[in-house]
Automatic annotation (TrEMBL):
One of its GO terms (molecular function) is ABC-type transporter activity. It holds the Pfam family ABC2_membrane_2. The chain crosses the membrane at residues 39-61, 81-104, 140-161, 173-193, 205-225, 257-275. Keywords: Membrane, Transmembrane, Transmembrane helix. Residues 1-22 are annotated as: Disordered. This is ABC transporter permease. GO terms for cellular component: plasma membrane.
Length: 282
């Protein structure tokens, strides 16, 4: 029955397509990856190059660099710029890189269901014997694969400049642990966007706006909470579990990774439950 469903989905997406497209259309998972290959490559390369560029500035820091950081920025990880791990935790993994993967999750998740429903293409897919839950799971699996690819490119970029940027004090395990959390952070916001689109049927722009706005708000809460004496707010955001355990220094934190994974699973589960029960179409 699984093969029949996948073949049916392939026939639904194949008329007039090229040989490579037909080869990748054996399932919704591979078809989604193929359709998003270019934008995924851009996300991965841009994030990797940004991480590499910021990491390369570390040797140029002076001993009093930490004293010149505004107090408001210390909640974003800029409280220890003298050590390699402290610098990367702030300048690379605490500032732009997490925001980029948040927007990746929001933008990609908004396309998984919302874009197809908005265009009417979702009706064509679901007219074949492909369950809604199966389609949703294949789509989120493709999004997760993209998140892993982005994290892997960032990891490779930092390991490539590790010696020249004087980052040898950070172990390969520490870099890997932070990259794993980066992929899980992207998955959380991807699951949120996909779940919202599946549950509500709202348009792509709306889903992206809600998800990206939630991400920016959570990021701000995490960064500014210490300034207002409300550190407990940090525990309500995924950014705390992404970087609060300082994986660059302490390695893989199973509990933090478990929270991020469980959050993604709950968001997708709720989205799938509602997706199975609501009317499709506009």
């Amino acid at each position: 029955m699984t093969a029949v469903r996948d073949n049916a989905l392939s026939r639904a997406t194949l008329p007039g397509t090229s040989g490579p497209s037909r080869a990748f259309s054996r399932s919704a998972y591979t078809k989604t990856l193929f359709d998003n290959r270019r934008i995924l490559a851009v996300w991965a390369l841009a994030t990797g190059l940004l991480a590499m560029a910021y990491a390369g500035f570390y040797p140029q820091l002076t001993a009093d660099a930490s004293d010149s950081v505004p107090e408001a920025m210390r909640g974003f990880g800029f409280d220890d710029l003298t050590s390699a791990a402290g610098y990367l935790q702030g300048a690379v993994f605490g500032l732009l890189v997490p925001l980029l993967v948040t927007f990746y999750g929001a933008a990609t998740g908004a396309r998984m269901i919302s874009a197809d429903e908005e265009s009417g293409y979702l009706d064509l897919l679901l007219a074949h014997p492909v369950s809604r839950t199966r389609l949703l799971l294949h789509r989120i699996a493709a999004l997760a694969t993209g998140a892993v690819l982005i994290a892997a490119v960032v990891l490779g970029a930092l390991l490539a400049v590790r010696t020249s940027a004087e980052l040898d004090s950070i172990s390969a395990a520490g870099f890997t642990a932070q990259a794993v959390n980066l992929a899980l952070l992207a998955l959380v916001f991807g699951a949120l966007a996909t779940g919202i689109g599946a549950a509500t049927g709202k348009g792509r722009a709306t889903v992206f706006g809600v998800t990206a706005g939630t991400g920016v708000l959570a990021y701000a809460f995490h960064g500014f909470a210490p300034q207002i004496g409300a550190d407990w707010l940090r525990h309500l955001t995924p950014f705390h579990y992404y970087i609060g355990g300082e994986p660059l220094k302490n390695g893989f934190q199973l509990a933090d990774a478990g929270v991020l994974t469980a959050t993604s699973a709950v968001l997708i589960g709720l989205g799938a439950w509602r997706f199975d029960r609501r009317d499709i179409g506009r």
